[in-house]
Amino acid sequence: MFRTLLKNFQLSMILNTPGHVSLDRIDVWFQDEARFGQQNTTTHIWALKGSRPRSVRQQQFESAYLYGAVCPSTGATEAIIAPYASSEYMLEHLKLISEATEFGRYALIIMDGAGWHQQKLTEGFDNLSILKLPPYSPELNPVEQVWQWLRQNELANRCFSGYDDIVEQCSIAWNHFIAEPERVIKLCSRSWTKLTS
């Protein structure tokens, strides 16, 4: 079943790119967005044996959306932070990915079926297209693991004073994650995305 799903998905990857673009010039990107805010996660922490460390959990509701995209073959990344998720911010994120795509190369952006992930947003670009994941399959998008890494290693067990603080801490966390391109490649590479001509 999973093998059939992947074969169909690989075929879709090929069909969603222009015919004049050879497979060795296609960069596969994974894109997603996550909400970070004052309703933050708590995780296990190191403490002295026998002690009972405490972690504060905020009750406020301010948050921000981090749009993130990774290209596991190159280690390239792009991100923006927005107050909410919408088609307008998605378009801005696509612009960043388009600009980051090397001249002569083509970006195939794999994402889930969120309402603001609309195919029509790619009409103004000649170097990228969108391929949606099958429904109910977040495990196929390695950006989900990026969010988990950010929460566990950078943003958990924190209190945020407001929106600006959330944006600043998310920026610091994202920049710390992308500081090592090898980490991006190792965490996000998937063998089934390799296209060969």
What is the CATH architecture term?
2-Layer Sandwich
Residue share in β-strands: 15-25%
Largest beta sheet, briefly?
5 strands, mixed
Tell me, what is the CATH class? Alpha Beta
Tally of strands: 5
Spatial strand arrangement across the major sheet: 3-2-1-4-5
Q: Total number of helical segments?
A: 5
Describe this protein with a few key phrases.
5-stranded mixed sheet; 5 helices; Nucleotidyltransferase, domain 5; alpha/beta; 197 residues; 5 strands
Question: How would you characterize the overall build of this protein?
Answer:
The chain has one domain: Nucleotidyltransferase, domain 5. Helices cover 33% and strands 20% of the residues. The protein has 5 helices and 5 strands; from the N terminus they run αβββαββααα. A 5-stranded mixed β-sheet has the order 3-2-1-4-5, sandwiched between helices. The two termini are 26 Å apart. The model has no long low-confidence stretch (mean pLDDT 87). It comes from Shewanella litoralis. InterPro entries: RNaseH_sf (IPR036397), Tc1-like_DDE_dom (IPR038717), Transpos_IS630-like (IPR047655).
Compose a concise summary of this entry.
The protein is of the alpha/beta class and 197 residues long.
